[in-house]
């Protein structure tokens, strides 16, 4: 079976869309499928990482003027770097005569118009979405956000399409499910010694540095250990490394981590963005202080806080005042960590990727009622 992916990464977009598609592609390849990625050549496009993982990758041409995408019919249209019509034409040209069995599209700037244009070049379409803000012309839709209901897409997808909704379908790498039991076991008697700081693969606004500066003034024990994880295209690596060397406790900066599940398992607390990494933390029951770094993270952040699975910082401007209070509370009351861990672990078990892959490969099953 041949699977095509249309998704992008960039300094502006971040890495999350490509990374979750890669997770799904790895699972499909392990089950005998062949996967090809079609990505626009934005700064930070990650196509080399895609091919290094053993998949085929094709770059669509970059545009010199992002304002080519001036018809803002969708809220994230500027992320595409061109019009949806030109993107469809270039993707069709890149696919050429190779009709994939599935075309998976994970892009906030694309909707049913683009998907209808792609119909002559593929047999079936899967849309990955987080927003429920535009229609899709697809056989299968995935929205892995907490609190998302299939009824949210009732009038946005065809009546006979399948909608997979909620974190039970979160696209996590297999290492997270494999580490789940170990991670949960060590949180029965929680402590606060190792803090994992990860603001996503890009962190274009350098929130990492702001968090580190705030932590340096907090009343944390001298034996506290901080591990900072950054993506290979993160633009503020040098600044963060300089700050790390000035911290009053051991602070390590890691770039391009391959075993995130292992790092999370051995960490006592995460400070991170409320993006797709949230489901990784939930799978491992990792207590979290979360920040919203993009509008599309806000809904999931609210849902996680409401169910007691994370403590939210109300805004980036509030980090200096709210983060020390949250750290002080956790340091002196470990029951907070225990409560956060239990609530988070109830949300996601890490088996979603296998379930989604099964839906794609079981073609006969994609012809029924919404799940």
UniProtKB/TrEMBL annotation:
Name of the featured protein:
UDP-2,4-diacetamido-2,4,6-trideoxy-beta-L-altropyranose hydrolase
Give the Pfam families listed for this entry. Glyco_tran_28_C (PF04101)
List the taxonomic lineage: Bacteria, Pseudomonadati, Pseudomonadota, Betaproteobacteria, Rhodocyclales
Binding-site list for substrate: 173, 280
> What PANTHER family does UniProt report for this protein, alphabetically?
GLYCOSYLTRANSFERASE (PTHR21015:SF22), UDP-N-ACETYLGLUCOSAMINE--N-ACETYLMURAMYL-(PENTAPEPTIDE) PYROPHOSPHORYL-UNDECAPRENOL N-ACETYLGLUCOSAMINE TRANSFERASE 1 (PTHR21015)
Q: Which residue positions are annotated as catalytic? A: 17 (proton acceptor)
**Keyword terms of this UniProt record:** Hydrolase
Task: List GO molecular-function terms, semicolon-separated.
Answer: hexosyltransferase activity; hydrolase activity
Q: List, alphabetically, the InterPro entries matched.
A: Glyco_trans_28_C, PseG
Domain (Glycosyl transferase family 28 C-terminal): give its ranges: 202-341
Under Gene3D superfamilies, the record lists: 3.40.50.11190, Glycogen Phosphorylase B
